[in-house]
Write a structure and sequence with these properties.
GO terms for molecular function: transmembrane transporter activity. The chain has 469 residues and is an all-alpha fold. Helix 1 runs parallel beside helix 17, helix 7 crosses helix 8 and helix 9 crosses helix 15. It starts with 5 loop residues before the first helix and ends with a helix.
Length: 469
């Protein structure tokens, strides 16, 4: 049922070859650590948008959204909608001050505000959250490659690691940005065509109302109001704290270009989920017994012309690989800058670049291994958890550092970040509380910050009272 024709294979391989070749060629002169991680701070709006959207629109935005559309309908749109809204907020409020700082990583920014210890702590917290997003795309990629090429999951995982190495290790941010732009063009073309065809097919179904009642299939709150709103907040907060997206902002030529790039990325990201939802719903009606994670690749194989289906499959594969690559690049940059340079004192450009690339490969291998051990889980659930964990500990200290700097003492900021992250992890993995771990973590963070401001205010009041009249 999913056997590929020669035309499928030809268009798939040709699309992959062209995009990967252009990616490698575009970044052929990348020899410095700054050129690798920040594109030499010369990126324009489109390259920034490509770097951000190319990471946002990965396996979760395509395969994972179709999987959720297959299971619950329109609620699957929340992922791209929430990330897009987060990028809008980044463009309007966060991009300009971050770019004006002239730094490279989120931990570096927080380290300047709260002390050197904040750098490695923030790096570890951010990397943990980003790793879970890589797992989400790894789940999609393994399922896709194993299905199409009739390989074992381990063999499919090996191919993903190889493709990530090509996309990132030989191009860095510029390679990720160029491949992101190319990938967006292909995905928009194929997903829009496939989504329109799926929607028209759904409209022609004689028993449509019986198969898809308005609730829950056509409600954004189909998974429950609390669950959906919690995931929305987690996506917005997590997006604003993600090193990979902020790294693209840092690569801009100036603050205005950074904001423009983030806004373009938002406009690209928000609509992408809708055709995936339509495809998932169609496959629910036409093939109710399949594994939901296979809804999108099977649709592209069975219901599109072979040449277009092959291009679409290549686009989905590239979206998975590009997302993993961009996220891994964020981890690699933090490891090189905030642990390598900040803790281990590795400052030589050559060794910093090597450490960055090694961290990218190790993070990819770890994420793929976790995905292999959790093959039957929902893709989007990993992303929601990822956003919650990275936002719980970092969002409030980061926001204060940007908009109200030098008011939160460094030791209290460290306490806030560490305690809130531990609280979120315990709530999710130990206590398994029904509440979103983001809210648990942010509540702890808010309490710590409130105590800090109260203590600071009391000290200031005592100092004023002790002054002679």
């Amino acid at each position: 049922m999913t056997a590929l024709t020669n035309v499928h294979l030809l268009s798939l391989v040709a699309t992959l070859a062209v995009i990967l070749a252009i990616t490698a060629w575009s970044a052929r002169a990348t020899t410095s650590a700054e050129g690798f991680s920040l594109c030499g701070r010369s990126a324009g709006p489109l390259l920034i948008a490509g770097g951000i959207a190319g990471t946002c629109i990965g396996g979760s935005a395509t395969v994972g959204t179709a999987q959720m559309g297959f299971a619950i309908g329109l609620s699957g749109w929340w992922f791209t909608l929430g990330m897009g809204l987060g990028l809008v907020l980044m463009a309007l409020c966060y991009a300009a001050p971050l770019r004006r700082s002239g730094l490279e990583t989120v931990p570096e920014f927080l380290g300047l505000q709260y002390g050197r210890t904040a750098r490695p702590l923030t790096s570890v917290i951010s990397s943990l959250g980003i790793l879970f997003s890589m797992v989400a795309s790894g789940l999609s990629g393994i399922a896709l490659i194993a299905l199409l090429l009739h390989l074992t999951d381990w063999q499919a995982a090996g191919i993903i690691i190889l493709l990530v190495a090509i996309c990132v290790c030989f191009g860095g941010m510029k390679g990720a940005g160029v491949s992101g732009l190319l990938k967006m063009a292909v995905i928009w073309t194929t997903l829009c065509a496939a989504g329109v065809i799926a929607a028209l097919s759904l409209a022609r179904m004689p028993d449509f109302d019986a198969t898809f009642p308005a609730w829950p299939w056509f409600s954004l709150l189909g998974r429950g109001t609390a669950d959906c709103m919690g995931n929305l907040v987690a996506l917005i907060v997590g997006t604003l704290c993600t090193q990979t997206y902020i790294q693209a902002v840092y690569s801009a030529t100036n603050a205005r270009v950074a904001a423009m790039g983030a806004m373009v990325a938002a406009l690209i990201t928000i609509p992408v989920g809708l055709p995936s939802v339509a495809i998932g719903m169609f496959m629910h009606a036409a093939h109710p017994d399949i594994n939901p994670i296979l809804a999108l690749p099977m649709y592209l194989t069975l219901y599109l012309p072979p040449w277009l289906g092959g291009i679409g499959l290549a686009a989905i594969l590239l979206s998975v690989v590009g997302s993993i690559a961009g996220l891994a690049l964020g981890i690699g940059t933090m490891v090189a800058r905030d642990i390598g340079a900040g803790v281990l004192r590795i400052t030589a450009d050559r060794w910093s670049l090597l450490l960055n690339r090694l961290a990218v490969l190790l993070a990819t291998c770890l994420a793929v291994a976790i995905a292999l051990a959790n093959a039957d889980t929902y893709v989007l659930d990993w992303n929601y958890m990822s956003m919650a964990l990275r936002g719980a500990g970092i969002f409030l200290p980061l926001t204060l550092a940007i908009f109200w700097p030098r008011h939160l003492p460094g030791n209290w900021a460290l306490l806030s970040m560490a305690a809130s992250t531990v609280a979120a992890v315990v709530a999710r993995f130990v206590l398994r509380l029904p509440v979103n771990p983001l809210f648990v973590g942010m509540a702890v963070s808010l309490i710590a910050i409130g105590m800090a401001l109260l203590a600071t205010g009391l000290r200031a009041a005592r100092a004023d009272n002790g002054k002679p009249a």
